[in-house]
Specification:
Layout: E1 2-4, E2 10-16, E3 21-25, H1 35-44, E4 49-53, H2 69-82, E5 87-92, H3 94-105, E6 109-115, H4 132-141, H5 145-156, H6 161-167, H7 173-177, H8 184-191, H9 199-203, E7 209-214, H10 219-231, E8 235-240, H11 249-266
Parallel strand pairs: 3-4, 3-5, 5-6, 6-7, 7-8
Antiparallel strand pairs: 1-2, 2-4
Helix pairs in contact: 1-11, 2-3, 3-8, 4-5, 4-8
Length: 267
């Protein structure tokens, strides 16, 4: 199905199940066809109405120019409206940061789960260049979509350069990676220059919140999760054992369902 956002942009979404609404907010390089998030949607559908949508600029969604983070929040708001006015949000990676922004906006979110929001706190990793959004935008404008994707992977996601070089020779690189390279600047806009922890914004979130990190993820991601949970008044932090940033649906779905069942019963 499709919903129409406030600026007229068509947002493609798979809606499944019955029950309280849950919206899955993806991170970089990901759309609703991603096997992990599709499996999470399927696992939640027996108890929830799940909206697994394509963020603007990817998959079945439009990409009305100029881009604005506020427009992405309006996309979520349009989904919440379709759901009847309230929903639970599950955000992964940069999608977790977007879900937090939407929650703080007060648009009908009544529960939030953040999977490894990539805020940078302390000295647990090198600082991220503050002009990354502009550089990515310029590379895409030059037609260097592969270079933009490589830069984002190496500098933002800390994927080893030799691994990215191998990825660029694989058949999936063009249709799956370069195809969404223009949206990588959007992720930078969502997080802000240098991916700082938005302490004041997080402090304004009052709904039940769970911040999850992986037991095998880099230390900087764990610290980011701890810091985010500490900044949100109604939040807790949990570690999913043996998981990395590319979390498995088998680990994530039960954590989501368990927390939301408790959050809904308390509300």
């Amino acid at each position: 199905m499709n919903v129409t956002s406030a600026d007229g942009t068509i947002i493609g979404v798979d809606r499944s199940g019955e029950g309280p609404a849950v919206i899955l907010v993806h991170g970089g390089f990901t759309d609703r066809s991603h096997p992990t998030w599709s499996a999470v949607a399927a696992a939640l559908a027996p108890e929830y109405t799940v909206y697994n949508y394509d963020r603007r600029g990817r998959g079945g969604s439009g990409d009305t120019a100029p881009y604005s983070v506020d427009r992405e929040i309006e996309d979520i708001e349009a989904l919440i409206k379709d759901a009847g006015g309230s929903a639970l949000l599950v955000g992964g990676s940069s999608g977790a940061a977007l879900a937090a922004l939407a929650t703080a906006k007060g648009i009908g979110v009544n529960g939030l789960i953040m999977w490894e929001p990539p805020y940078i706190v302390g000295d647990f990793r090198p600082p991220l260049r503050t002009d990354l959004e502009a550089v990515l935008t310029d590379l895409v404008a030059q037609g260097r979509r592969g270079d933009a994707a490589e830069l984002f992977m190496v500098e933002a996601a800390q994927v080893p350069a030799d691994m990215v070089a191998q990825m660029r020779s694989q058949p999936f690189w063009g249709p799956q990676v370069e195809a969404v390279a223009h949206t990588l600047a959007y992720e930078c806009a969502v997080l802000g220059p240098g991916n700082p922890l938005p302490t004041d914004l997080l402090a304004s979130i009052t709904v039940p919140t769970l911040v999850l990190t992986g037991g095998n993820s880099p230390a900087w991601m764990t610290e980011a999760g701890k810091a985010a949970a500490a900044a949100i008044p109604a939040a807790e932090h949990r570690v999913l054992a043996d998981q990395i940033h590319d979390v498995s649906a088998e680990a994530l779905a039960p954590a989501v369902a368990g927390f939301f069942a408790t959050a809904i019963s308390r509300s």
